[in-house]
Design a protein that fits this description.
single chain; globular; ABC transporter involved in vitamin B12 uptake, BtuC; about 325 residues; 2 strands; about 75% helix; mainly alpha
């Protein structure tokens, strides 16, 4: 009897330790933090311009669009899904907002609202197909990527939209922090990461997302409406892609139908480098922010030291493979 109680206590202790290790944000982000620090140290030695406020502001501007996309991508990957369509959805929102405001003459804020609504609708479409017809997320979002891409080019007539109202480019304006200019768009991206972090770590909705990604059948048996959780995640992700489209407009100052063609892969890269498991249930948006900054720092640093752009792609690819390999090894050790 005593041995049975001792065995039970030991099992509970192991489960508690495992749960803590699984969810502790400090442990989950340790690898990305080390990678970011090492990259920063390397480029600060190689270039005098790297450790400047202006350069840090530039890095934030360069990652704010992909970083915002990566927030939505993180939510989906945490449910063991994936979204290949987010860059195309963002491009569609980008064209809708600018063309409605410029060509149709709509109030800029109404145009923004309709663009956000269209992106959210695409997110609902993705989630509906995944939850209702039970299609694999990879196939669903591959299909909607092509649909959004085609609609973007049909509606835009392959034309870039310029002469935008000031309301559409407001987030590209800057304010000073000391001698450094920071864009409002960069600030919005950081705020979105903060909101997503609070939801995932401090609310029952966030716990449900982790539970669905970790063990969907177990989550269902505990009373969690797994289909509703997944559908909501895809819809919220679509809305976030709409915000990313507005950030893209504010950064470029035009509506470009060719925008975002590789941003889907860049957003997945940020998520993976940030330590979120592609198998769902493990990771954080804090890690995703670090992952986006790692990519931004590497690309910025290589540009500063005069390295060809193709090597940026090469190094990023190597980092992604290493990150996924580490995740796989960690899963096998726990199995």
């Amino acid at each position: 009897m005593a041995s049975t109680k001792a065995a039970g206590a030991e099992i509970k202790l192991r489960n508690s330790v495992g749960s803590f290790a699984k969810n502790a944000p400090d442990l989950a982000t340790l690898g990305p933090v080390i990678a970011l620090v090492l990259a920063g140290l390397f480029f600060s030695i190689k270039s005098d311009r790297f450790l400047t406020g202006g350069n840090f502001s530039l890095i934030l501007q360069q990652v704010m669009v992909v970083g915002t996309l990566a927030i939505g991508q993180t939510l989906i990957i945490l449910t063991a899904g994936i979204d290949l369509s987010n860059g195309a959805i963002m491009a569609l929102g980008n064209i809708l907002i600018t063309k409605l405001a410029v060509d149709a003459g709509l109030n800029p804020f109404l145009a923004i609202g309709l663009g956000l609504l269209a992106c959210t609708a695409f997110g609902l479409l993705n989630g509906g197909l995944v939850t209702t017809i039970r299609l694999p997320p990879f196939i669903v979002t591959l299909g909607t990527l092509n649909i959004a891409f085609a609609l973007t080019h049909i509606y835009s007539n392959e034309e870039t939209i310029s002469d935008l109202p000031a309301a559409l480019t407001y987030l590209g304006k800057t304010f000073n922090v000391g001698q450094t200019e920071i864009t409002y768009g960069s600030l919005l991206m950081i705020a979105l990461f903060g909101i997503a972090w609070c939801i995932l770590t401090q609310t029952s909705a966030g716990r449900h997302i982790y539970a669905v990604g970790d063990n969907p059948e177990g989550a269902r048996l505990t009373g969690i409406r797994t289909r509703r959780v997944v559908l909501t995640v895809y819809a919220v992700a679509g809305f976030i892609y709409g915000i990313a489209s507005l950030l893209l407009v504010s950064r470029t100052g035009v509506g470009d139908p060719n925008a975002g063609q590789t941003d889907n892969l860049d957003s997945i890269t940020a998520v993976v480098l940030g330590g979120t498991s592609l198998f769902g249930g493990r990771g954080s948006v804090a890690g995703t922010l670090l992952g986006a900054l790692i990519v931004g720092v590497i690309r910025n640093g290589l540009q500063l030291i005069g390295t060809k752009s193709i090597y940026q792609v090469l190094i990023t690819g190597i980092l992604v493979i290493l990150a996924v390999a580490i995740d796989q090894l960690a899963r096998r050790r726990k199995a």
